[in-house]
Amino acid sequence: MKRILYIILTISLFVGCEDNLIQENPTGPTGDDFFQTERDVQLAVVAAYGGLTNENAPWGNNMWGVEAMSDNAYGIADAPYNRLDEFEHDSNTGLIQNYYGYLYRAINRSNLVLQKAPQIEGIAQADLDNYLGQVYFLRGYEYFLLTLLFEDVPIILEPPVEPAGYSVAASPAADVYAQAIADLEMAEQLLPDTQDDAGRVISMTATAMLAKVYLFGADELGNTAWYGEAEQKAAQVINSGTYQLVDDPALTPHENLVSLWSLDNQNSTEDIFAVQHYSSGGWSNGNVASSYPMGINPRLDRALNIWGFGWMHTYESVEAQWDDADPRKRFTLFFDGDDVVTINGDTLGQYSSSTARGESRRDSGGPKKFWWSESFDRVSGQSDLDAKVLRYADLLLIHAEADLMADGTVSAAGETSFNEVRARAGLAPIAAASITRDVILEERRWELFLECHRWFDLMRTQSAEQAFDDIEALDNTLPQYFGYALNKNDFEKQGFIPQKHYKLPYPQAALDQNPALVQKPEWAASE
Question: What's the alpha-carbon Rg for the chain, to the nearest Å?
Fold first, then answer.
């Protein structure tokens, strides 16, 4: 699929206007004159996938802003993430515009396929179902992500006829969740059990995403019946045998983790839904590709020719909170003195927070999780590494959590799911009686660290305040920061206001162009 994706994105295929905010290239192909053959539908489906992988789309590079809002990491001052991690963002913050605008662009691409594909003659029903199922999945996931980020949002189910005058009011989050579920259920029905091209979604992908939507919706909407729905959907995925952890018994836990994140093992048995990335590897090469994960790999000493352009660092508190016995810790983070291996396996130097480019904190661990996938040419600003949006380890922990929340106890099946993740990491099992929700959320934090899930876990459980208190208390006991922008009085989370910051404001550009969209009261009062 990557070859096709690269071709389509390189020629900037826009099947019609992109959303109710921006009309791109009105002289280019439109929904009316582009959709003529089955091949056009195939290309449009690929373009729909591409809606998530553009450099400015959420899973192109910008999801790091969500990670920076959590207690895992923070953005440095010369990058776009620091305003979110310091909770100083507003309706004019560029990342917020990108989250909103690019998700609606992606939704419009799916809407065009859903509208136009059934009108084309000669497409076999099974093939048509497959095309429609893929874009139903994408649209369902995109609405889920929109409500996680913004809560109430407009629901748009068909391409706008006159985008310049298009006005749609925000729908309540409950309705957005209902739309996401309806789309994913339709995808579950229409999609086949397998696909010829790696990276394309199948029926069980939709089932797995439904498990996550039900779990998160149960928390966000207070719909406790959905815990049972999440448990049932997750169990269905597990019992199908479609996916499994990357866990070769002949390998050590560290070696299995390296395998999981290797460029040679993309779309592995663990990847339920991965946004496909393609890059020719050059810095600012002009490809509509992805900077993932180079936006988080640490800036190292340019004199060694091993610098990335990472914009984030992890808190010192992470080192204190994360058990040294967990192999995922050393796999995920650089520590002072770690070898930095570059071209041809030569060790050109060691990682040091004192020589890392940009602001650093003494003894902090730089992000390392995605460094294993690189060719160790630190000058590259692009990466081929796919974004693992939903992987089987996440699904297993969703199952354990939903199992617990459904009736207050962890069943044998839930215990097995939870401990399967720990076993891959080489950790001892935990008995069902000791598996609390806090224990599960902690396991999710370390297993999914830096994968842009932690903030959403804090948000849905309304637990960010305690998490921020914990890291502030720990940071005050750790060595003095150094670097030109950070000191003991610059704790990034001091601006967090629970009633305001769990959800993002609507971007000003959307408010300007959509008269029916009204800014949230808690944000309107401060702008």
Answer: 22
Does residue 45 form part of some domain? Answer: yes
pLDDT of res. 21 = 40
Give the CA distances from residue 7 to residues 36, 41, 59, 254, 321, in Å, rounded to whole numbers and listed in that order. Answer: 19, 15, 19, 36, 45
Residue 422 lies in a domain: no
**Alpha-carbon distance 279 to 137, whole Å?**
25
Distance CA 457, CA 468 (A): 14
Query: Whole-number mean pLDDT of the chain?
Result: 83
Residue in 521, 473, 475, 464 with CA at minimum distance from that of residue 497: 464
CA–CA separation, 450 and 365 (whole Å): 12
Do 285 and 384 form a contact (C-beta atoms < 8 A)? no
Phi-psi domain of 350 (left: phi exceeds 0; alpha: psi -120 through 50; beta: other):
beta
For the purposes of burial, counting CB atoms within 10 Å of the CB of 373, is it exposed (0-12), middle (13-18) or buried (19 or more)?
buried
Q: Has residue 170 been placed in a domain?
A: yes
Pairwise CA distance, residues 145 & 160, whole Å: 21
Rounded Cα gap, residues 121 and 130, in angstroms? 16
pLDDT digits (tens, 9 = 90+) for 469-479: 988 887 666 55
Q: What sections of 272-377 are H helices per DSSP?
A: 316-321, 327-332
The DSSP secondary-structure symbol of 507 reads: P
To which H or E segment does residue 511 belong? Answer: helix 508-513
Domain region containing 151: 34-191+497-527
- Please check the confidence at residue 423 and state whether its pLDDT lies above 50: yes
Angle among Cα 280, 285, 288 to the nearest 5 degrees reads 75
User: pTM of this prediction?
Assistant: 0.91
The answer for residues whose C-beta is within 8 angstroms of residue 277's C-beta and 6 or more apart is: 2, 53, 60, 289, 290, 292, 383, 384, 385, 386, 387
Number of structural domains in the chain: 1
Q: Length of the chain in residues, anyone?
A: 527
- Token readout for 144 is 């889920």
> Where do the H-state alpha helices sit in 293-436?
316-321, 327-332, 392-407, 412-424
Between the alpha carbon of residue 349 and those of residues 303, 353, 367, 409, the distances in Å are 10, 13, 17, 50
Q: Which of 166, 41, 170, 201 is nearest to 513 (CA)?
A: 166
Judge whether 123 lies within some domain. Answer: yes
* Cα 440 to Cα 436: distance, rounded to the nearest angstrom: 6
Which pLDDT tens digit goes with each residue over 307-348? 455 667 788 788 889 999 999 999 998 877 777 665 555 655
Return the CATH number at 117. 1.25.40.390
Calculate the CA 384 to chain-centre distance: 16
Phi, psi dihedral angles at 388 (to 5 degrees): -85, 85
Q: 271: which strand partners?
A: 391
CB burial class (10 A; 0-12, 13-18, 19+) of residue 296? buried
